[in-house]
Design goal:
By secondary structure, this protein is of the alpha+beta class. It is built from five helices and 16 strands. The chain has a seven-stranded mixed sheet with strand order 2-1-5-4-3-6-7. Strands 10-9-12-14 form a four-stranded antiparallel sheet, with no helix packed on it.
């Protein structure tokens, strides 16, 4: 599923070009609202932030395949950081019920709070499912994403950033690179150099993805090596600015 999603992303971006826009909610306080949960209670993000350092608000629908695909990955990250973070998933689908969501949660083996908030559109402009907001300790929205995370590493990198000493209230830079061949197939094991005032090396994973989160910066990218059976242009150079826009690096098969 992930491979297919990333390959489709690759083709879409190569055909249309990627335009990254900062959502106007980023940098704003999350409006106060509450919603019913599957355990019969109610909860709000502000209440959750009294005990946690960061809250992930995920807006989903039970019929949404990308939502279903990313929830187990979110659960794994949650299990690693549940002492300091909270995930709360709210269905914005008017056809969902709390009973349906409870069954959905049990089926996927999810432990974080889930509930129903069909009025969520009064607070967050929805353009599709899933939509994810990351809210820091101050109640400020620091990150907004429409659509599922392409890999678990993307989501984990964001949470690690928000829970680290590097986070100073500045919205993070999200750096995404997809290394593929001319057919859009992922190329794992490609080494790419990122340079701003200093240089560092990253290697594409099994999905052909390099993804990390950090302070906003503008990096120039250079291919350093590719796996056996592939070739590359030694003069290749691209720019990755941390806006979340995907940089597509295409290598050749030999």
């Amino acid at each position: 599923m992930k491979k297919l999603l990333i390959v489709l992303l690759c083709f879409a971006l190569m055909a249309a070009g990627a335009v990254a826009e900062v959502n106007p909610l980023v940098g704003q306080a999350l409006p106060e609202f509450s919603f019913g949960t599957t355990d019969g209670g109610t909860v709000s993000v502000s209440e959750l932030l009294q005990a946690k350092d960061v809250v992930v608000l995920n807006i989903f629908a039970s019929w949404c395949p990308p939502c279903r695909a990313e929830f187990p990955e979110m659960e794994r990250v949650y299990q690693d950081h549940a002492d300091r973070m909270e995930i709360v998933a709210v269905s914005g689908n008017p056809d969902d019920t709390l009973e349906m969501i409870a069954d959905y949660k049990a089926e996927l083996g999810l432990s974080f709070p889930m509930g129903l908030g069909t009025d969520i559109a009064d607070y967050v402009q929805l353009e599709g499912y899933p939509t994810t907001l990351i809210v820091d300790k101050r109640g400020i929205i620091g990150y907004f994403q429409l659509g599922a995370f392409a890999t678990e590493a993307q989501f984990r990198g964001l949470i690690d950033y928000y829970l680290s000493e590097r986070y100073d209230g500045t919205a993070p830079g999200v750096f995404n690179v997809y290394v593929c061949d001319k057919d859009g197939e992922p190329v794992p094991g490609a080494v790419v150099q990122f340079c701003d005032t200093a240089c560092r090396l990253y290697t594409s994973d099994a999905d052909g993805v390099i993804s990390f989160t950090g302070k906003p910066a503008r990096y120039s990218l250079h291919i350093q090596s590719v796996p056996e059976g592939y070739g590359y242009d030694a003069a290749y150079e691209a720019v990755c600015d941390g806006s979340g826009e995907w940089v597509i690096i295409e290598v050749t098969k030999e």
